[in-house]
Design brief:
The chain has a domain of 58 residues. Helix content is 69%, strand content 0%. It contains 3 helices and no strands. It is rod-shaped and about 110 Å long.
Length: 124
């Protein structure tokens, strides 16, 4: 005769129970990704505007993700903190990019004005 094997499944609790914790912190992950892209775009001279926008978003998402992790609603607090830091770095790079661009445009305008004044003063 055939024997049927019966097995007892292990105890199953809800997903989020202490034994089965799912890592979830979507805002922290979003902050990290936006911070990385923002910091990289801040290194490219004329993309300072993109670095500023992404930096602000990463900073907001990172702070909210960190707050959720402190309340126990989310895990991966480290990702949220890293996203916040990279968001701040993106903002700093964006400000530096604005200053460099404004100075470069100002210098170029001064050089053009000098050239125009010199050519108009000297008759041909």
């Amino acid at each position: 005769m055939s024997q049927q094997m019966h097995y007892q499944p292990g105890p199953q609790g809800p997903i989020g129970a202490p034994g089965h914790q799912v890592a979830r912190n979507g805002l922290g992950i979003a902050a990290l990704i936006l911070g990385i892209i923002g910091a990289l775009s801040g290194l490219i001279p004329l993309l300072f505007w993109l670095a500023g926008i992404l930096g602000i978003m990463a900073l907001i998402f990172g702070l909210v993700g960190t707050g959720r992790a402190k309340r126990g609603q989310a895990t991966n607090k480290g990702m949220a903190i890293a996203g916040t830091v990279l968001g701040a770095v993106s903002l700093i790079l964006s400000i530096v990019g604005v200053v460099i661009t404004v100075n470069a445009v100002g210098d170029a305008v001064n050089e053009i004005n000098k050239t125009v004044e010199q050519s108009s003063v000297q008759p041909k």
